[in-house]
UniProtKB/TrEMBL annotation:
Annotated transmembrane regions: none
Protein name as it appears in the record: Putative hydroxypyruvate isomerase
Annotated organism of origin: Burhinus bistriatus
The family this protein is said to belong to: Belongs to the hyi family.
GO BP annotations listed: glyoxylate metabolic process
Alphabetical list of Pfam families matching this protein: AP_endonuc_2
SUPFAM superfamilies with a match to the protein in the record: Xylose isomerase-like
Reaction catalysed by this enzyme: 3-hydroxypyruvate = 2-hydroxy-3-oxopropanoate
């Protein structure tokens, strides 16, 4: 969904008090785009704690606004056979004022909203920075997950760049849990984009697959 007025520092509107009308207009536009390109999932961006406000002081009002907007979105998206996604973004490095920061917070809010077509967009980069414990978190929140995103930590580059995460292990864990959705590569390539995709070719080869993920046996 649209970020709002980025020049004014907005980064999503769903949890921002007083911006409900703008959120709904933006959601309608997002649905139009999603329908046109055949995309069944829309990231409903929560937004930031207002500049100068104390997070703890505004948390209750922001959560109430978020829940209200998510219920509205879920109803609208259900009519389109679409899924709404909420993504926790770390506030330690990436966005200090972003409202939604952990999968625990997201899961609690989704439970309060109570619509089955709202899911968790779990970016493992943010999850590792905020909480770590990725294996247990993936197992715990797997029923809520509607999309996975990846990037190495802390550089946010290719999965095979130096860092904290073992992506072959994570991919095998996702397979063992029964994940059949897409894995979004939301990282910043260290150089050329296509050269940076060498990690994927190497991963396919390690699994006995050819370019495009097809089995050599099937070939």
């Amino acid at each position: 969904s649209p970020p709002g007025d980025q020049e004014a520092g907005e980064m999503g509107l769903a949890a921002v008090p007083g911006r409900q009308a703008a959120f709904r207009r933006g959601l309608a536009a997002a649905v139009q785009y999603a329908r046109a390109v055949g995309c069944p999932r829309i990231h409903l961006m929560a937004g930031r704690v207002p500049l100068g406000a104390d997070r703890a002081a505004v948390a209750g009002e922001m959560e109430t606004t978020f829940i209200e907007n998510l219920r509205y979105a879920a109803d609208l998206l259900a009519q389109e056979d679409m899924i709404g996604l909420v993504e926790p973004i770390n506030n330690r490095i990436t966005d200090p004022r972003y409202f939604l920061n952990t999968p625990h917070q997201a899961a609690a809010i989704l439970e309060k909203v109570g619509w089955p077509n709202l899911k968790l967009q779990l970016d493992l980069f943010h999850c590792q920075i905020m909480d770590g414990n990725l294996s247990r978190n993936l197992e715990t929140y797997f029923p809520l997950i509607g999309h996975i995103q990846i990037a190495q930590v802390p550089g946010r580059h290719e999965p095979d760049s130096p860092g904290e995460l073992s992506f072959p292990y994570i991919f095998e864990l996702l397979e063992s849990l029964g994940y059949t959705g897409y894995v979004g590569c939301e990282y910043a390539p260290k150089g050329d984009t296509l050269e940076g995709l060498g990690w994927l070719r190497s991963y396919w080869e390690s699994r006995g697959l050819q370019h495009g993920g097809t089995s050599k046996a099937a070939e």
